[in-house]
Amino acid sequence: MTPTITAFESSPDRGKGLARDMRVRWALEEAGQPYEVRLVSFSAMKEPAHRALHPFGQIPTYEEGDLVLFESGAIVFHLAQRHAGLLPNDANARARAITWMFAAVNTVEPPILDLVIARFMEGDKPWAEQRLPLVKDRIRKRLDELSDRIGEADWLDGAFSAGDLMMVGVLLRLRPSGLLDEYPTLAAYVARGEARPAFKRAFAAQLAVFTDRVPA
Ligand SMILES: N[C@@H](CCC(=O)N[C@@H](CSCc1ccc([N+](=O)[O-])cc1)C(=O)NCC(=O)O)C(=O)O
Questions:
Q1: Would you state the pLDDT for residue 50?
Q2: pTM, rounded to two decimals
Q3: What is the ipTM of this complex?
Q4: Which of 18, 64, 76, 84 is the most buried (most CB within 10 A)?
Q5: Is cis: bond before 3, omega within 30 of 0?
Q6: Which among 39, 51, 58 is the best mutation to test ligand 1's pocket, defined by most ligand atoms within 8 Å of the CB?
């Protein structure tokens, strides 16, 4: 049964890999699995039909037979459980890789999302300018710690895993801010993720949504 994911019909980044369907596409490509894509408009996302799949009215969702999932991390974990290529077989190494999946979305992503919120949702507030340095320093704290941990290694814990896929996906969101370039170790780590053939196929597929059609 070929699964179907949902993705943005139109996206602020016009398919440059920042929207979270990118993580699911990448995981499907690493697992060598075919998939269908249903594009959803911002308004359709908030309609009952989509909310039946995603209670928060967002993308991505994942449908496979009568299974419906949301949360990009949970979808990646589901794929990693069902297919080889995303989590190691060794029980302890697998547990460590899953730990990094949680660290990506629970510890590293929140301060990065705070910057997105500070910029795009609070930018016009009188206190926005004052708050921005605090937000950036909270990100730098996590990047310092992550950079120290990765050091000269290729991946977070031995071979590439879903933990790296999620962490690279989180760090990619930083690129527009310029903060990632302050950390050559992390910029190189992200570049290694982007150099993977599965990433390139996923990126090309997401971009094609926006380049293969006449702009609306
Ligand atoms: N925790 C959930 C978060 C899902 C989520 O934030 N989805 C966003 C798209 S990915 C976030 C995103 C959107 C756009 C860009 N961009 O740069 O264009 C980057 C990231 C969404 O549906 N937003 C519409 C809404 O909430 O109404 C997950 O990981 O799946």
A1: 98
A2: 0.97
A3: 0.98
A4: 76
A5: no
A6: 58
